[in-house]
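Students often ask why we bother encoding 3D structure as a string. The short answer is that it lets us treat folding as translation between two languages. Here is a chain of 488 residues written in the first language.
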Amino acid sequence: MVAAFMVLIMTKRMTPVLALIIVPTIFGLFAGAGLGIGDMALDAIGGLAPTAALLMFAIIYFGLMIDVGLFDPLVRLILRLVGNDPVKVVVGTALLASVISLDGDGSTTFIVVTSALLPIYLRLGLSPVVLTCVAGLANGTMNILPWGGPTARAAAALELSPSDVFTPMIPSMLAGLAVIFLFAWHLGRLERKRLGSLALPGSEGEVPDARAGSARGGLFRRPSAPRPGVGGSGRSGGSGRSGGSARTATQVERISTGALQALVNPADTAMADTMLDPNRPTLRPKLFWFNLVLTVAVMVLLVADVLPLAYVFMAGSAVAILVNFPRVSQQAERIVAHAPSIVGVVSMVLAAGVLIGVLEGTGMVDAMAAWVASSIPASLGAFSAVITGLLSIPMTFFLSNDAFYFGILPVLAESASAFGIDPVDMARASITGQVVHMQSPLVPAILLLVSLAGVNLGDHHKKVLWRAVIVALVMLAVGVGIGAIGIG
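And here it is in the second language, the structure alphabet:
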């Protein structure tokens, strides 16, 4: 079932929303679900409803903050730090995603990273798939923080302390981040080779002509007229050649509308266009400090976890809309403006409920747990923790964290105890696959990331999955090497 789903979305034979509904329905019926398949799906969708509400109002809130210009200074700061070098931009993406991921919430991380960096990617002509790849890897690695979710689940399932599980794994997490920064550097080098070192449209620097090296057959063309909207402030960006050499420097040229849409359709990135226009009518410079204090308060409440996360964003969005856009017509307009992102994300989250419902309702999860436990030969029992770490890579991708940590990990830990493997070793090994898990279509946060960036989920998977597997293996190897993950 999962293989069929992955093939369909990676070959673009079906959209993720349709695949999440149709594929589990067909396999569920073959598995004997019968008319009960509807109740299975609705039960799972009910459990996902708070997550859908969280993402919906998180998009509205951060979309409003982008509209009013709260993140504009951050973009300018990042731009000054990374300059016009694709390598610095991509490495900066990994750094920003890692830092923001300290709050333990993937959705917040992806919203902030996308709002800050996607405009820069679009204006420089970098592929947004690189952004989703690097941000997804960084957030997945940081997801093993005790307050991130999986570590707490593993500890609860085996009745352990989250700090006992996480603290010895810090070197593994740092090793994973080092590999991710190496991947970011390499991806930046590939983008630099493809596009050349580019300056922002309207900048003063001179750069090598990148047209000959474009993988898309000429991303950079002289426009017949200055571009409004995506190009920025409307300044003329065209330039001519200043010499006869193939290496002669030229002023950077604006990305033409057609070429930009070939890279990513701005209509699919509801949060991207407004960030590029310093004269957009939604700016509220006089309310900057109010919006900053409100956002800090929302972040504090999210980390403190004193209120349901969905309600925090609902209340924050209501206050932000009321203060920044007091007219009813403006309020409705702002909500509608972010509808494309909302519909895309929420529909995928709810559709994922069908897959989760079929997996759990038909007993597939229980059957897999029993099969995995019985498939480990006695001769390999001493390596149960390592095997668990290896199994966590595909299984946390195919299953929800709850299904894996509460359904499968206890069974594996019970089997491993016969070989003298401590439960804490099993718990530590089980979290090494989280960087792969975070790329799963069952994770709402990754659906949010690809939706905001206008990236096809299959394209994201092609670039990110094999890199995520390498990071997970490095984390597992380091854990074994330093003794955090024991061998019986």
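Translate back mentally: DSSP finds 23 helices and two strands in the chain. Keep this in mind for the problem set.
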